[in-house]
Write a structure and sequence with these properties.
6 helices; 17 strands; 15% helix; globular; 7-stranded antiparallel beta sheet; alpha+beta; single chain
């Protein structure tokens, strides 16, 4: 598939970054079918990040888990997921009906990730997704972790309009999060962001800021934000299985002077939360202490924040 896989927002972001040619090169990786090697990769995975809009149009990212084999390709264009969001998850109700979804299968232990976008319909045991786009991403900024299973019972969700002090500390110490966005037509996407602890700056109880590091120049996330500012974030507690969902809006700060103040930043992204949901014990996976990616830029001291 050629560069026409990009929508107007992605091309606008590539132009603003001066990377149209590199984006066109990366477009060759996008296809509508799952390669055979990718089918095997999916069968080995115990988790999937999924992004979608709820009935009110708010974007959310969530985490689906299962024993390896819970993800399987029925054919080159169809993914079956033997899991659905549990009660209390912000996407539980929405995914009982057909919905556009963005998905990210990520394997921290081997620094691998694969993105898939398509349309989901509910089944008796999970979701059936007809795929529109399939492609792998580079391994940069993935912290190496090994997983194990531990029995978990999700607690009732804790809802708020702003971050608590504990939640702010959780985010300030995070080395990984996931972001869900969509284009103007509602086609969803889910992506990964990683860095050294502190790379996400808590500006206030409702505002976060993080650097956008160099990548593959596809600008799927930032391209979506050019035309549709709604976004959802997901932070996972790798030790306890708790998850923190945030929804709101995001914008890209393209000012090179602002980016120059943050090590490794090509530009900055600012997110404003409107709703926060914390669920303890949401995932049965527990993960080892991370081995940081060698690509992670250093993080400036807090006193040097913008």
């Amino acid at each position: 598939m050629a560069a026409d896989v990009y929508h107007e927002g992605e091309r606008a972001a590539q132009r603003r970054a001066g990377l149209l040619d590199q984006g066109a090169f990366s477009a060759r990786a996008v296809r509508a079918e799952i390669p055979e090697v990718a089918r095997k990769f999916l069968l080995q995975q115990p988790m999937l990040v999924l992004g979608a809009a709820d009935a009110q149009g708010r974007m959310w990212a969530t985490l689906l888990t299962g024993r390896p084999g819970f993800l399987h390709a029925e054919d080159a264009r169809t993914l079956t997921i033997d899991a659905r969001p549990a009660a209390g998850d912000p996407l539980h109700d929405r995914l009982t009906e057909p919905a556009p979804v963005g998905m990210l299968a990520i394997e921290p232990a081997r620094h691998r990730r694969m993105r898939m976008n398509g349309h989901a319909v509910p089944t008796a045991h999970g979701l059936h997704v007809t795929l529109d786009q399939v492609y792998s991403n580079c391994p940069k900024y993935i912290q190496k972790r090994e997983s194990r299973w531990e029995a978990a019972v999700p607690a009732p969700p804790r809802r708020s309009r702003a971050l608590t002090g504990d939640q702010q500390r959780w985010i300030s110490g995070a080395d990984t999060f996931f972001i869900a966005t969509s284009d103007r037509e509602g086609n969803a996407d889910a992506s990964h962001r990683g860095g050294n602890p502190g790379f996400v700056e808590v500006v206030s109880r409702t505002v976060l800021r993080w650097p956008d590091y160099t990548g593959n120049a596809m600008f799927n996330t930032l391209g979506n934000l050019e035309v549709q500012p709604r976004a959802g974030l997901l932070f996972a507690d790798w030790r306890t299985g708790a998850v923190l969902h945030l929804t709101g809006t995001a914008r890209t700060d393209w000012d090179p002077a602002h980016a120059a103040a943050v090590p490794g930043a090509e530009r900055l992204v600012e997110f404003t939360a409107t709703d926060v949901i914390e669920i303890a014990g949401a995932a049965p996976l527990r993960w080892s202490e991370p081995i940081p990616s060698r690509f992670n830029p250093p993080v400036r001291p807090p006193e040097e924040a913008l």
